[in-house]
TrEMBL record:
SUPFAM superfamilies according to UniProt: Ferredoxin reductase-like, C-terminal NADP-linked domain, Riboflavin synthase domain-like
Underlying gene: asrB_3
A Pfam match: NAD_binding_1
Entry keyword annotation includes Iron-sulfur: yes
Annotated keywords: 2Fe-2S, Iron, Iron-sulfur, Metal-binding
GO biological process, one term: pyrimidine nucleotide biosynthetic process
GO molecular function, one term: 2 iron, 2 sulfur cluster binding
InterPro entries registered for this protein in UniProt: Cyt_c3_hydrogenase_gsu, Dihydroorotate_DH_Fe-S-bd, FAD-bd_FR_type, FNR_nucleotide-bd, OxRdtase_FAD/NAD-bd, PyrK_electron_transfer, Riboflavin_synthase-like_b-brl, Sulphite_reductase_B
Positions with a binding annotation for [2Fe-2S] cluster: C231, C236, C239, C247
Every FAD-binding FR-type domain range: 5-97
Cofactor(s) required for function per UniProt: [2Fe-2S] cluster
Annotated source species: Clostridium luticellarii
Protein name, per record: Anaerobic sulfite reductase subunit B
Entry note: cofactor: Binds 1 [2Fe-2S] cluster per subunit.
PANTHER family: ANAEROBIC SULFITE REDUCTASE SUBUNIT B, DIHYDROOROTATE DEHYDROGENASE B (NAD(+)), ELECTRON TRANSFER SUBUNIT
Length: 263
């Protein structure tokens, strides 16, 4: 019987310096069992572990985009190509891909919240006939915090994009929080559509409220909610909100459920 809590060693293939605080680690992985929106527990022995969403996948590799925020991530940032990173997973549910096909899709992402949805966006970039349209709003604090510059450029050639910086003006970017730009999405022209919102809890809260103010139905909104996950298998209780274990029932939630989980 497989022990689902036992991490295994994986080789780091590449390290991409996205910003001073966020790196993307490409790790050798030869299984085809990953769905968009799932996460792994990444660890360094005797240091710790943390849940990290998959930000990209390809033949023989996975990518994880990590922000340096503590002892574990500081240790991971010290790793180089050919070093070993320990992982267990994948865990959690995924974005309902079948519900998105042949419909309009709106994606609203803030900061590192772009990571869990980037793989899904790449899927539709590579399979444009499977989606009616994509409207993408991606917000970052400032120009030094912009992630995935290559992907942002290519998405702009196919999707309807709004890239925004919180308080600064830079060519190619709007100014203001993502919530300020939601009203620009032509919801009234869509017959059947879905909305994905990913980012810090407060950003998701106000972005969802703004969508509702623009006549979006609650059932059409999906969020990725990685609140305080620890064991990933529903045993430690750290992520439990009322009767919901985020690691087991999430991290992807429909807003009809998520509205009672967002703090």
């Amino acid at each position: 019987m497989t022990n689902i809590t036992l991490p295994a060693p994986y080789k780091i293939l590449d390290v991409i310096h996205e910003t001073n605080a966020e790196y993307t680690f490409r790790v050798a992985y030869d299984k085809d069992n990953i769905k968009y929106g799932q996460f792994f527990q990444l660890s360094i022995p005797k240091v710790g572990e943390a849940p990290i969403s998959v930000s990209g996948k390809g033949a023989g590799w996975l990518e994880f985009t990590i922000r340096k925020v503590g002892r574990l991530t500081e240790g991971i940032f010290g790793l180089q190509p050919n070093d070993t990173l320990f992982m267990r997973g994948p865990y959690g549910n995924s974005f309902p891909l079948d519900k998105f096909r042949n419909k309009d899709l709106v994606v609203i992402a803030g900061g590192t919240g772009f990571a869990p949805v980037k793989g899904l966006l790449n899927y539709f970039y590579e399979h444009p006939k499977e989606i009616k349209s994509i409207n993408l709003i991606a917000g970052f604090k400032d120009i030094d915090c912009v992630l995935f510059e290559y992907d942002l450029k290519k998405f702009k050639t196919v999707f309807n994009t709004i890239y925004t910086l919180d308080n600064t003006k830079v060519d190619g970017f709007e100014t203001g929080m993502v919530t300020a730009h939601i009203k620009k999405i032509p919801f009234n022209t869509f017959k059947d559509y879905n909305v994905i919102i990913v980012g810090p809890p407060i950003m998701m809260h106000f972005a969802a409220k703004e969508c509702l103010a623009n006549s979006v139905e609650e059932s059409k909104i999906w969020v990725s909610f990685e609140r305080k996950m620890s064991c990933a298998v529903g045993k430690c209780g750290h992520c439990k909100i009322n009767e919901t274990y985020v690691c087991l029932e999430g991290p992807i939630f429909n807003y009809t459920k998520a509205k009672d989980l967002l703090d």
